[in-house]
Design a protein that fits this description.
Strand content: 15-25%
Number of strands: 20
Radius of gyration: 38 Å
Structural class: alpha+beta
Helix content: 40-55%
Number of helices: 20
CATH architecture of the largest domain: Orthogonal Bundle
CATH topology of the largest domain: Triger factor/SurA peptide-binding fold
Length: 623
């Protein structure tokens, strides 16, 4: 628990802001806000701001996929209640809209530079610890966003994050609250437990019981809502061999390439400044004196260290390193480029004063031949032409698909092939059906209900598709024969757990009133005795541990308290609380951690109350 407090009290605001970027927003389904399609029907209005039916449908689809991911691929999606999903999704959309309005009313803002920093520092967008544009594009494409859409959505989430941080970060607690929490946190308990395993195989479930359950829960046994789509796919790579480059264009690009390969000159200098303490005549006399000493054979670097008034280079013997043209003062540069290697210039006047300039070295880069660069330059030119051609063809595909009543004509116009997917549901499928935007488009009212072709969908920077619903397999009642085994197993487990529960209730009642004697082995099971167990004890089922610390303190050592809890596998654990031990006094460091944790929790409660207040004062219309 102490580690949990530490984790939750340090940087929780930052985690809220950063973590929401890829995790929460990828799962809540709010990306539909940025879809540009107009719809006549509204799902709700929040203080005048509209939530469309399309946004709600996409939010429901996303929540369904989220649940499918959590429950595993073998989970039957037909068991999910669409009505409950829609209610939960709409509630989330309304709550988010209220928080956005609250953040804007409170004048919260977020700069573009700060937004950039969040994106750059997000681990999900990094490769080898550094921001990767390719990784960024890959992640947001999987979430169904373009770059501008993601930035707009992220900016809104950051506003909500600021509002949450402002409210939740203002929570505080008293010393007495910290002391009380510390006592509870460091408390330990002595207990014993019996574990009775459920045995579904011993249960007898009749055909009549299976039929009755099937009839009572008929809506849970439906085939999934599925669609089969036709689609045409446009690949950028298909146009690479269709473009040619002109030899003159290659020569022009080659000249631009080698023009950037400038000579680098390694310079050193001695500067005598012209300033308030030294006029031009004095500075000139001093530089001429140094020049004479150089002429007598004294070392340039040694004189620079002694006389140069350039603080950046004097200590290194006047060394300025390598640089190309355009770096120095024009007069300085002209003198430098007039020298041969090892030569020292005459005094040169610049705005800083007088210089003696030495050319230490020259680096002349090797200019590659046209032949060595031809393939590279050809690819660059072809890539530019393919990009342009791809944009043109994509626009042609969009126009043709919009005007056509099927995909045959657009495919014929562009020399493409109409392909057909395997059936897939709202949770997606394989191949093209794994793309989130494709799933959303396939189940959109325009494609699924109105029979229209979709707009162009970018699967990745190299691929564009247009889809059309070929077949809609609506949910149908599954026959009893198809689900009877699953129902029988479910009922058998319920019966086994219920029988165990009745048995343990009778056992606990007998132990409590003394009618059943406490023994080390009870009903064939040995009591497992544990002492000084903490709230974060390892090796104990979390459900049982939580139940143990909810039990009332025994009135006396010889009057233990009994309780029971059902585990996830249907087993029943009987708990015998023997005693409660007060812990050692909390250290100042621990108290500080407790205080931060409690303040954070209080702040989050304040934020929850603020959300309720927003909702209570809002004008919300659900359609």
């Amino acid at each position: 628990m102490l580690q949990n407090i530490r984790d939750n009290s340090q940087g929780w605001i930052a985690k809220t802001i950063i973590g929401v970027i890829v995790v929460l927003m990828a799962l809540t389904g709010f990306d539909a806000i940025f879809q540009a399609v107009n719809h006549n029907k509204d799902a709700a209005k929040v203080n005048g701001d509209t939530i469309s039916q399309n946004e709600l449908s996409q939010a429901v689809d996303t929540q369904r996929r989220q649940l499918m991911q959590r429950l595993g691929k073998d989970f039957d999606a037909s068991l999910l209640d669409d009505k409950m999903l829609r209610e939960a999704a709409l509630k989330g959309l309304i709550e988010r809209q209220l928080l956005l309005q609250g953040a804007r009313d409170a004048k919260f803002s977020f700069s573009e530079a700060a937004l950039d920093q969040v994106i750059l520092q997000t681990p999900e967008f990094q490769a080898d610890g550094k921001f990767s544009p390719e990784r960024f594009d890959q992640v947001i494409r999987q979430l169904g966003y373009g770059r501008l859409q993601f930035r707009e959505m992220l900016a809104q989430e950051m506003l909500i994050g600021q509002l949450r941080a402002g409210l939740a970060g203002s929570g505080f607690v008293t010393d007495s609250q910290v002391e009380a929490f510390a006592r509870l946190e460091k408390q330990t308990r002595d207990f014993a437990s019996l574990t009775f395993k459920a045995d579904p195989a011993a249960s007898k479930v009749t055909d009549e019981e299976v039929k009755a359950h099937y009839d009572e829960h008929a809506k849970e046994f439906m085939s999934p809502d599925q669609v089969v789509i036709d689609y045409i796919e446009l690949k950028k790579s298909a146009y690479f061999d269709q473009v040619n480059v002109d030899e003159n264009e290659l020569q022009e690009l080659y000249q631009k390439e080698i023009a950037n390969l400038a000579e680098q000159r390694h310079a050193a200098h001695i500067l005598v400044e012209v300033n308030d303490k030294q006029d031009e005549a004095q500075a000139k006399a001093r530089i001429e004196e140094i020049q004479q000493r150089l002429a007598k054979g004294e070392d340039f670097a040694a004189l620079a260290k002694e006389f140069s008034q350039d603080p950046g280079s004097a200590n290194s013997g006047g060394d300025l390193g390598y640089a190309g043209k355009g770096v120095y003062d024009p007069a300085f540069e002209d003198a430098l480029y007039a020298l041969n290697k090892g030569q020292v210039s005459a005094p040169v006047r610049t705005e800083f004063g007088f210089h003696l300039i030495k050319l230490v070295d020259v680096q002349a880069p090797e200019v590659p031949t046209f032949a060595s660069l031809k393939d590279k330059l050809s690819r660059e030119l072809k890539t530019q032409q393919v990009e342009q051609r791809f944009v043109e063809v994509t626009k042609q595909l969009e126009d043709s698909a919009f005007e056509a009543s099927d995909l045959a004509q657009p495919a014929q116009d562009l020399g493409l092939k109409v392909q057909t997917s395997q059936p897939f549901g709202r949770e997606g499928g394989d191949g093209i059906a794994a793309n989130r935007q494709v799933i959303q488009a396939a189940f959109s009212p325009e494609v699924l209900d109105e029979g229209s072709n979709s707009s162009a969908i970018e699967l990745d920077p190299e691929t564009i598709v247009v889809i059309r619903a070929k077949e809609h397999r609506k949910p149908e009642q599954l026959p009893l024969e198809a689900v009877s085994d699953a129902i029988r197993a479910h009922l058998a487990r319920e019966q086994a757990t219920a029988a165990l529960k009745a048995k343990t209730e009778a056992l606990m009642a007998g132990l409590s009133d003394g009618k059943i004697a406490y023994q080390s082995v009870q009903d064939g099971q040995a009591w497992k005795v544990q002492e000084a167990v903490s709230r974060s004890q390892d090796g104990i089922d979390p459900v049982a541990l939580q139940a143990l610390f909810r039990m009332s303190k025994p009135e006396a050592k010889d009057k233990p308290v009994y309780s029971s809890v059902i585990l996830a596998d249907g087993s029943v654990v009987v708990l015998r609380l023997n005693g409660v031990n007060e812990g050692t006094a909390a250290s100042e460091e621990e108290k500080g951690q407790y205080r931060r944790y409690l303040a954070s929790r209080a702040g989050q409660q304040d934020f929850a109350a603020y959300r309720k207040q927003l909702e209570a004062n809002a004008e919300i219309t659900r359609y």
